[in-house]
RNA sequence: GCCCGGGUGGUGAAAUUGGUAGACACGCAAGACUUAAAAUCUUGUUCGCUGUAAAGCGAGUGCGGGUUCAAUUCCCGCCCCGGGCACCA
């Protein structure tokens, strides 16, 4: 009986579907385990072999946990709102709703072939009104909340109104406007429009005017994490800074909690580092420098700077303020006015990208000075684009001997440099050390810089001219998009006041719209639908929410997907709790994961869920690279030269479809038929064969190196495919795809099959009990496989299975009592074949619910061990020695060995090292 | 520039990190079965040297040092590859 995987896999996939084998109930009587994959954006390209890597790993782990008796939640869904569907609609005239559904159907059919254990009854689609109703509802919670800094948590905006009525905002400084101060009386006498304006500056989801990343090509605003090196993450289009009215999430208020929460979760160090760096916490001081009165027209008396190095205050040779700084007009002296205006014009003419690409040293002197508070020295105030308006106070004190940028600036503009670190400064480059003893530094002289930081801070605070200040690099997240294919905001504007709609009015459905051209004034396409926009005497918000809105909370919806009363019942979220294992790529390190963590904290603060970190453990699967094949065309000809001979010609390399290449050998006839351009190609071969070049790179259509999992499953079966993806290497590591290697795994599966069935004789598995040697092999394997599975070392677990099958085959073991246990252990990896054999050997019920075998240690007890015996660390012989042997026993045994005496040359050894259960080393 | 990963045979990798380097596979080579092929099985396969062979010796985990009886693993200094951040004061 042959292993007919196609029929077997089809049979069981249908049976599992029919029996709802993967249906999961919220059953508090059983221990839970929640395994989550980062859900895919259903792109038109479908899946390549790299995508299922993480899904297979999580599937194996889910099945393993289920066999261990856990109630396992392992759902799947689609992040189905987003830009590409909209771009596709514009280019092809197909509505996003339609192309998205089509793509989802394609994804689903690809996923189904691999045999995942998802409970599809729990599927979520972020673009489904039943889902985004609750995304809108959570938005309303964010809109109706503010962050209480003292309690470090979100509270209802109504609580804030109570506070304002009683005491104004003196004890609750405004996160959106540091200078805003008002009393209770002022609050109470203000009109509702004024009050709304103030509240907006506190809300966690707020609308405001600010510098945003505007991408002209995409016609929308982007969040910081969607901009990579000055271009859009999607499409690589240029991005410019623009002042616009936009919706934001006040994620900066959660900076501290987001940092603290990292201590409580099991993410990789690099993932934690990325988030920590993105948040960018720094400790320092804000210092007020008095502006020298005789040099300014200004009424301003002080310039406030932010520094992390107040210890260097005696080394300040100039000040730099950002070109956008408020004080520029008032500080600029009449003599410098023209120069300053010219400079500002120049700065405005430079795009963000130009600034990043060419970091030129530019700047202009304002004509004003301020005074060093400790020695009265006059310090010139400069304006330069290297100081960012959005960070700190938008002004710095420049210490050229200690800061590289300040040093270059001073050198460029010939500003004299004060040395406060003696030998540590060589005059050619700045030295940012903290280890120097300070010189020329007044009361700080002689102190170690690292100690002087707090001494200077104390002094500044004592004199009331400075205070300790913590800053974060992270910015509030832009939350509106000028696009169509996203969640509409549940907001109506009346007289410039944003009115939230009642939760009973949800969902605010996205209206159908055939023409997705932008609306007027950089508004989204929805602005073109006046009958939709006009609502209840006001105008609907026409922006839509960004892609990350729906993905920020989807893990909660899976717990209670059909609930139409709540986003997720408290009972469901209390039962399932945190995601125990979250698997996905590193590309979401600072985007999705931070937003999702913030939303979870807000929902926790408001009492809707009982935990404030969504993901307990995160595993990042590596990327599978494509192994591209290249052909070399002799320039300006139709001749193609084989890789080994290409250096003799001037050639252009061309990617060739990997399916036309066997190893490195090109199918020349196939190549001619591949594209009309190549139909009359001729080849310069090596011994009749055309050899292609190779390169590892991203798996992508344009390199013709995409391998579709459907093809692999068709040829080798899903079980082989699953195990091979795992066998390729550690899940977390990037690795190349090589279809050839799959043969080894396929052979293993067939060999496993042959433990049960013979091609002619049929079933060969017998009721004869297994012998001790076979049990030993099995339990050794079980122990390894279980340990490896538990630590996500799936590649070595597969190797463990191979060793087990090889050894049992050698022993001719066909005992059903043993093999039946083997089947259960293999089920998470290769469920189809195991379920089929389970049925064939007459077991009742599904193997999916069998119980995982337990290691019987009695079979694994060893009495002796093969010890490597080394001479001076170099292994020379292997000796089988009783495990109870003492040092003396071992020494005697070792010295008897001729091989060892040969090395000793008659002399006694200096020492014999014996590490029980490890090794023996003879030192001579 | 800064912060993380990583560098091991022809290839993917293993050694659960002081204790037999290269498990398990791919590929390759030789052989068995077969009219033949597929499939399957057997043997070999880090490199170099000696040897008909059995075997032995030497080198070897990016490079150079160090600690140790013993280093892929720990320490110091460099090189290369991948990822993230990048005028954040």
What's a quick, concise take on this entry?
33% of the residues lie in helices and 19% in strands.
Describe the structure.
Helix 22 crosses helix 23 and helix 25 (772-790) runs antiparallel to helix 26 (794-810). The chain contains 30 helices and 37 strands. Among the domains are: 139-255 and 476-540, no CATH class; 281-472, Isoleucyl-tRNA Synthetase, domain 2 (Alpha-Beta Complex); 624-697, no CATH class; 723-856, Isoleucyl-tRNA Synthetase, Domain 1, CATH 1.10.730; 862-923, Roll (Ubiquitin-like (UB roll)). The two termini are 61 Å apart. With 924 residues, the protein is an alpha+beta fold. It binds one RNA strand of 89 nucleotides through helix 10, strand 11, strand 15, helix 14 and strand 31.
Task: Label this structure with key terms.
924 residues; alpha+beta; six-stranded mixed β-sheet; 30 helices; RNA-binding
Identify low-pLDDT runs.
none
The CATH homologous superfamily of the domain at 281-472 is termed: Valyl/Leucyl/Isoleucyl-tRNA synthetase, editing domain
- Helical fraction equals 25-40%
CATH topology of the domain at 281-472: Isoleucyl-tRNA Synthetase, domain 2
CATH architecture classification of the domain at 281-472: Alpha-Beta Complex
